Amino acid sequence: MQSQTNRPLSNRRRWVATLMIGIALGAGAGAGVRASAAEANGVVLAPNAPSHYVVKRGDTLWGIAKLFLRDPWYWPEIWHSNPQIHNPHLIYPGDTLRLIYVAGQPQLVLQRGSAASTREQGGVVKLEPQVRSSPLATAITTIPYETVHAFMTKAVVLSRDQIRHAPYVLAALNDHAAMAQGNTIYARRLRGPVHPGMSFDLVHVGAALRDPGSGKILGYNGIYTGSARLTRLGHPATLVMTRSARETEPGDRLIPSQGELPLDFEPRAPSEPVSARILAVTDGVTMIGQYEVVVINRGARDGLAPGDVLSVFKEGAVVHDDVSKGYLRGVSTFFAPKVHLPNERSGTFMVFKTFRRVSYGLIMEATNIIRVGDRVQNP
């Protein structure tokens, strides 16, 4: 009889053999059987998942995840981080992702493009990662960078206390009614450790963000209007506008500029149950489509973090059942019993920036009309 101490070694050998065969064969013969085993564990591959994919410029992690998975937020379940590669979560154009199977379960392994060399040992390709000289800016992002860049760095939710105490724009030199890039402006209430050269975001106080259930104000939508650099301390202080995104007005608040926020988070399901509603859409449209930025009434205190993926549901309508008891349709509908139709999934939402009680996110997919007030919950 085989001893207990020998069994782990035997299992390890079998695991290594499975891994080597998987790397050598990719998603070759028997992929259907292995995919079925994967589905049993909750990870469902896309119907036409490729055996490998070469990353291209303009790709996003979400788009690549959809190539391999039916539900892209299961990406962490199949992504195999190689500790030998510096920051394996960054993927670059030219890199190759290979779909392999380990003990019947799918894994994606990374082969660096020009930053990796290969050599064969017994017919099996061994990857040898090397130092990459490409700048981090060339790595692909999880969601479209150009769509969310302004919101990653400029979006802000203001509290009543912030509005009450934040510095504000008083006026412009030469009494400019519309303050724009290059204009000199004056601000009051600049206190604390400020110094010439410091940069500020100019923020217009927008509508109150109210919780649909309680009606309680969760904050106020801060609308970015431009940026300014402090040139002279005083009461008022003097600043020069370095950027203009829209008209800046007296009363707009000054918020210290934030640095760039990372976009290399991974899509995943939230770690806790989430039930939220869409509070607002950033550009004021009534019907929300793909890649629209929206605000929901749950935030960091509810366990949400950048990368969390939620499903959007259209609430089912309430209809009268004027058939079951023989009501005359169109005449006695008022007396017929009411029936609440089921909620229907209408899209997918990904969080990219959280505040304490609200979060900004992007509509990744829209299969039906999405509106303010629709439900957002775990996929």
Report on the structure:
There is one protein chain. The chain folds into three domains: 7-138, no CATH class; 150-256, Beta Barrel (Thrombin, subunit H), CATH 2.40.10; 275-377, Thrombin, subunit H (Beta Barrel). 15% of the residues lie in helices and 34% in strands. It is flat. Mean pLDDT is 78; it is low at 1-38 and 115-136. Strands 6, 7, 8, 9, 10, 11 and 12 form a seven-stranded antiparallel β-sheet that branches. The chain has six helices and 20 strands. Strand 9 and strand 10 form a beta hairpin.
Describe the secondary structure blueprint for this structure.
Elements: H1 7-25, H2 31-40, E1 52-54, H3 61-68, H4 75-78, E2 96-102, E3 105-111, E4 116-121, E5 124-129, H5 145-154, E6 156-158, H6 160-165, E7 168-172, E8 184-188, E9 199-210, E10 217-232, E11 237-244, E12 253-256, E13 275-281, E14 293-296, E15 309-314, E16 318-320, E17 338-340, E18 344-354, E19 359-366, E20 375-377
